[in-house]
Amino acid sequence: MTKIKACLFDLDGVIVDTAVYHFQAWRRLANELGFDFTEHQNEQLKGISRMESLELILSWGNVSLTQDEKNDWATKKNAWYLDLVKLMTPNEVLEGVPEFLDELKANNIKIALGSASKNSKLILERINMLHYFDAIIDGNNITKGKPDPQVFQLGAEATNCKPEECVVFEDALAGVQAGKAGGMKVIGVGSEEILKEANFIISSFKEISIEKLRTLEETP
Ligand code: BG6
Ligand code: MG
Fold first, then answer.
1. Domain 19-85 carries which CATH code?
2. H helix and E strand count, the chain
3. SS3 content of the chain, % helix, strand, coil (to 5)
4. Which of 26, 67, 68, 93 is the residue whose CA sits 20 to 30 A from 133?
């Protein structure tokens, strides 16, 4: 039996639903470049980096740009995204998250962030959640994006835990794969269809408790 000592949380789609804001800003970029894409396609952008997202979106629109142009568009998209982030309030924290984090704290389980976003600290501040985190690993600290396990491996190191002592919470397939590749247990947050590689899936944090988390200690 391996005791769980840390929980590593993705941010976007797990702590707060910023995917809608990313979608709005990316869609504005696509529209300005003369095409559109669907919410279904947007699913593929979850968990991957800003530049990887841009490459994928440009491929959907059959648009080719120079590296300088790509950098300019990525900067514009981020500015539009941040305009939306600035309007966020603590009310947008997803249901059950603060209660579960309080429970983790009360049980001395470390809390770390493992996000591809370079805006994670700003977002955590806006939604008044920064104080919960013992470590923050995000797009500013990593060289390899999800599904590479680096972001969660750094989270495990930062909390002085072995991978098998960590549980990852993820809403994106790339993130579930990253946690699994890192040798961690993974709880999928969202749809069964997309996240089936996770150890188990919850549709909201109202469905998780320390007792349920501890059942993973028995899982090989
Ligand atoms: C991830 C999101 O958390 O962060 C992706 O799921 C996003 O959609 C990525 O592209 C990078 O975010 P940012 O804030 O650095 O542009
Ligand atoms: Mg996510």
1. 1.10.150.240
2. 9, 6
3. 50, 15, 40
4. 26
Query: CATH number of the domain at 6-16+92-218, please?
Result: 3.40.50.1000
Residue 12 designated active-site: yes
Active site residue 83: no
Residue spans of the domains in the chain: they are 6-16+92-218, 19-85
pLDDT at 219: 80
Residues with CB in 5 Å of ion ligand 2: 10, 12-13, 171-172
Ligand 1 pocket test, pick from 44, 50, 70, 77 with the greatest ligand atom count within 8 Å of Cβ, gives 50
The pLDDT tens digits of the residues spanning 148-197 come to: 999 999 999 999 999 999 999 999 999 999 999 999 999 999 988 888 99
What confidence tens digit (pLDDT) does each residue in 15-48 have? 999 999 999 999 999 999 999 999 999 988 998 9
Tokens coding 38 = 């669907």
